[in-house]
Design a protein that fits this description.
The longest helix is centred in the N-terminal third of the chain and has 36 residues. The protein is globular. The protein folds into 2 domains: 166 residues, no CATH class; 271 residues, no CATH class. It is an all-alpha fold and 455 residues long.
């Protein structure tokens, strides 16, 4: 089940909301847990037990980490066990096929390639359970004594499938006591509808342009068409993922939870470093807190810091998918950030605001090429179309057709990807119009999953 479906909008969500607010507060965690399990089982019934196993395992392992917190070796053993089990499950389901295929290619082996269906949301809830245990080990929180509360935190359906990654410490108090009001619920509903509009009315629509460009044969490609296509993909993935985050934050607010922001208008950035402080903030925060800082962060020498950044960005790419294009995508941005941090920072500061912005958008475009094509030969071919206007024709009839049919949508989407969107008053009539337009689209639409579901 996805948020942008008629089943969720007009059956599941109304039923959950009515039930939730009719029952006394002491039963609400239990109701949310049941709703979350039903939500997950709707699409992945066979992997429901995998998520429950992770929840039960981390509930008990955190108790053991806390009990033996004064015994260094014992505490390290239980923390290591948590890492091994959680990352082992993630690695088995997400990376087994990639690793066996790579070993076959490198060492000319004949290992059976394991192709498993990826459990939806496993990358997100694995990082949440890990952060919980690690925070207990670091003494930042105490383990939750109520299994119901911890299970509610891990399985919470608003952000279970595609984030944002919520740290237990950020909502610990809200699991025990949270406030509800009509004003707060309306604010959450408003945020949800905004995210829904982003996904259905913007991401899905600009995504149609990207789909058409991808299907064009090389003989019909042009320099201008290639740029239109990758711009469309950049806008699609932004509105798709930030739209989901908006919906998750809005639903959380309705149920009394305050999730941290996950996007902060990343396309207004004037450097790649700034972009990654604004894009998928919860993932960047997780890697900073649990990988970069424990490795020494920037408190070590220059080369050690470069090593730390390289490790973080390798892992960032690998987290997104079991393929070389994602690893290269992560390293691509890691190298740029290292160069900006140690060599380009002063040069960039002396450039005009518009030049810095153009520099950032161009580098992002090539990053999105790496992200979107798993076949590296396609990455090279498409990048050559973007780099060299003479590799194909400069402009052709497809370019003009796409510009005429999608140009206004791309322009509106680009504007709405900036803080100018905040100047639009989200009145009740406008929210109703957005909801009606979304509904009309979904009545005839085919399946429209979120892009980040596959990560």
């Amino acid at each position: 089940m996805v948020f942008s479906s008629l089943t969720f909008l007009y059956l599941f969500l109304p039923l959950v909301l009515v039930t939730y607010f009719l029952f006394p507060a002491r039963y609400r965690n239990f109701l949310l847990l049941l709703a979350s399990l039903a939500f997950y089982a709707w699409g992945e019934p066979r992997y429901l037990f995998l998520m429950l196993f992770s929840t039960i395992f981390d509930f008990f392992i955190a108790q053991l980490v806390y009990r033996y917190r004064q015994q260094r070796l014992a505490k390290r053993f239980f923390v290591g066990l948590s890492l091994a089990v959680n990352l082992g499950l993630l690695g088995f389901f997400k990376y087994a096929g990639f690793l066996s295929g790579t070993l076959n290619d490198v060492f000319h082996l004949d290992l059976a390639i394991t192709q498993l269906a990826l459990p939806i949301g496993i990358s997100f809830y694995t990082f949440q359970t890990l952060s919980y245990t690690l925070d207990v080990a670091r003494g930042q929180i105490q383990p939750q004594r109520s299994f119901l509360k911890l299970a509610t935190y891990i399985t919470l359906f608003p952000q279970l499938i595609a984030g944002p990654i919520v740290r237990y410490a950020d909502i610990e108090d809200q699991l025990s006591q949270r406030t509800s009001s009509w004003l707060r619920s309306y604010s959450g509903l408003q945020r949800f509808i905004i995210g829904l509009g982003k996904k259905v009315l913007l991401a899905n629509q600009v995504g149609l342009l990207w789909q058409e460009v991808q299907l064009l044969p090389s003989s019909e490609m042009s320099f201008f068409t290639a740029w239109l296509g990758i711009i469309a993909f950049g806008l699609q993935i932004y509105f798709d993922f930030s739209g989901y985050s908006d919906m998750a934050i809005g639903l959380g607010r309705i149920f009394g939870f305050d999730f941290l922001e996950n996007f902060n208008f990343p396309y207004i950035s004037q450097s790649i470093s700034e972009f990654w402080r604004r894009w998928h903030i919860s993932l960047g925060t997780w890697f900073r807190e649990y990988v970069y800082i424990p490795l020494g962060g920037n408190r070590v020498g220059r080369w050690q810091e470069i090593r730390n950044l390289a490790i973080v960005w390798f892992l960032t790419g690998f987290w997104h998918g079991a393929n070389w294009n994602f690893i290269l995508w992560g390293l691509y941005f890691g190298v740029i950030i290292i160069i900006e941090k140690h060599f380009l920072s002063q040069w960039l500061q002396r450039r005009s605001r518009w030049l810095r912005h153009l520099y950032t958008l161009i580098l992002l475009a090539f990053g999105w090429v790496l992200f979107s094509f798993e076949d590296l030969s396609q990455v090279w071919t498409y990048s050559s179309w973007l780099l060299n206007p003479f590799a194909t024709t400069l402009i052709n009839q497809h370019s003009l057709f796409y510009l005429f049919h999608f140009g206004p949508l791309l322009l509106v989407s680009a504007i709405l990807a900036t803080p100018l969107r905040q100047k639009i008053p989200m009145t009740l009539p406008l929210l109703i119009i957005i909801l009606l337009l979304v509904t009309a689209y979904l009545v005839d639409a085919s399946f429209n999953p979120f892009l980040y579901f596959r990560f």
